[in-house]
Amino acid sequence: MKRQGIFLLYDEQGCVDEYIVYMLQSMNQYFDKITVVCNGILSSEGRKKLESIDRIQVFVRENKGFDVWAYKEAMEHIGWEEIKDIDELIMFNYTLMGPVYEQDLDRMFKTMDAKNVDFWGLTLYHGVPFDPWGILPDHKLPDHLQSHFIAVRKHMLASVEFETYWKTRPMITCYEEAVAFHEAIFTQHFSNCGFKWKAYCNPEENVIANPYPLFMAPIQMVMDYHCPFFKRKLFFYPMKEKIVDSSSYISRVFYQFIKQETPYDETLILKNLIRTAPMQDIVDGLGLNVIPDSECERIAEKIAVVIDEDFYLQHQPDIDDLETHADLYYWGSEESFHQKKNWEEMHLLECTTGNFAEVYYAVGAFAKEYEYICFLVNEDRSYIAENLDNGHTGWIIENSILGKGVSLGNIVSCLNDNSGIGLVYPPNSSQSLYYSRQYKERELISCEIQQILEDSDIHLNIAKVRGSIGQYTGCFWCRSQVLQNLTENVDVRKWLLAQTDPCFVFTSVLSLCAQSMGYYTARSYNKQLAGIQIDSNDVMNDEINAAVQNTSMSFPQMCKKLECLQNELTCIAAYDYGQGFASVYQKKVAVEYLDNGKGQICIPVPRKVKNIKLIFNEDMYVIFDGLRCEIDGISIIDNFMYKDDKYSILHGSDSAIYLNGTLNEGASIKICFDEISYGYLGHGMDSIIGNIQYKERQLADMRLSLQDYQNDLINKKAVIALQEQRLKEAREENKKLKEEQKQLYEINGYLTNERNALVEYRNDIENSKTRRMLQKIDKVRGK
Question: Which residue has the higher pLDDT, 256 or 466?
Answer without folding.
Answer: 256
